[in-house]
Write a structure and sequence with these properties.
This protein is α/β, with parallel strands linked by helices. The chain is built from 11 helices and 19 strands. Strand 12 and strand 13 form a beta hairpin.
């Protein structure tokens, strides 16, 4: 934190958010805490531990690297890898009790070349996302039978709802899941999980599903205002110089032109830290007042138009809270996920 630029992570708020969600949606048996991408930019095992304290009894990650990192600190919590793991590393999964996703027949045939004793798997069904997952009943049945014949432990089956705010699309995805799996008894599969954050919040629990995946909602970023979720992620820096500029330009390419006299503050954070150049024009906070980012954002610094009340050393709030994150996402024409996931590891995380 030598440049006094850092992310503040509120662990108590993460834990509280998870407890609130589970308390309201309390009819599931398995709550998957999705901690991929360093807990959506929150980083560190401390965030994972807060999620577990909140009540999540299973974790989900995207890569084997993420799973193994968590396993170094927690030997017991079940971990599902949502991405595809190269079969040559399958022994690492077995040794470290990492559950894997099987999403197509070709991948399963490759896996069968290896010793799979004690391997736990979940089959993913493609119900319309068209990313990962088995596409039809025939392939699913072959996969299911091969898994049974080779004594692989089928712990779960799941899908991913891609448009949870569209009732027609989502209900069709549920129906497609049911159609593809209709030749088996779903009650014999230990875990069925269909819904991630938005679908969990927006739809009644499906009778045969006993698990849900909590992702962005744990960090307070969800449409369900009834939960009164708390902010967990804030980004701060400080002013290192103030320039009095008149009839000149500011920054690379001179894109920002000053006619009347202005005070331009320099802040040590830039696009190498995840504050991409498109952030120009949006607001930061200094002494609880809004000030605008101006000029081209540099790799390591940016410019803020301030007034005479601002001094060198004043704290700058680059990302304030849930509402500010949503405002930034709108300015960047993106989603809140990308805003917080983009803040790089060069920016230290401070935990409170």
């Amino acid at each position: 934190m030598y440049r006094n630029t850092y992310v503040e992570i509120n662990l108590e708020n993460i834990e509280t958010n998870v407890k609130k969600i589970i308390n309201k949606y309390n009819d599931y048996k398995y709550y998957f805490g999705v901690v991929k991408a360093d807990c959506y930019g929150h980083n560190d095992i401390k965030s994972v531990e807060a999620i577990i304290r909140g009540g999540c009894n299973y974790l989900a990650v995207a890569t084997l690297e993420e799973a193994l990192y968590i396993r170094k600190y927690n030997k017991d919590i079940p971990i599902l890898c949502l991405g595809i793991i190269n079969p040559k590393y399958i022994n690492k999964c077995i040794k470290n009790n990492i559950t894997i996703t099987i999403s197509n027949l070709a991948y399963l045939y490759e896996l069968l070349k290896y010793s799979l004793k004690d391997l736990k798997v979940h089959i993913k069904i493609n119900t319309g996302m068209n990313r990962l997952g088995v596409n039809n009943k025939d392939d699913f049945n072959q996969m299911y039978n091969l898994i049974k014949e080779n004594d692989i432990y089928l712990e779960g089956i799941y899908t991913h709802i891609h448009s949870a705010y569209d009732n027609k699309i989502t209900l069709n995805q549920f129906k497609r899941f049911e159609s593809i799996t209709s030749d088996i008894n779903l009650s014999e599969v230990p875990i069925i999980h269909l819904c991630a954050s938005d679908a969990t919040l927006n739809y009644d629990k499906i009778s045969y599903a006993n698990g849900c995946r909590l992702g962005i909602v744990m960090y307070g970023l969800a449409e369900n205002k009834d939960l009164n979720l708390k902010s967990t992620f804030s980004l701060y820096s400080t002013i290192i110089q103030i320039n009095e500029v008149e009839n000149e330009t500011v920054g690379y390419n001179g894109n920002y032109k000053v006619t009347d006299k202005e005070y331009i503050a320099v802040v040590p954070i830039g696009y190498a830290d995840g504050i991409i150049r498109k952030n120009t024009g949006r607001f930061v906070y200094i002494n609880d007042k809004e000030y605008q980012i101006v000029g081209n954002i540099c790799m390591d610094m940016l410019f803020v138009k301030v007034d005479e009340s601002i001094k060198i050393g004043d704290k700058v709030t680059i990302i304030k809270d849930i509402n500010h994150i949503e405002s930034i996402a709108s300015h960047l024409d993106t989603i809140s996920y990308e805003v917080i996931c983009s803040i790089g590891k060069r920016v230290p995380r401070i935990y409170k």
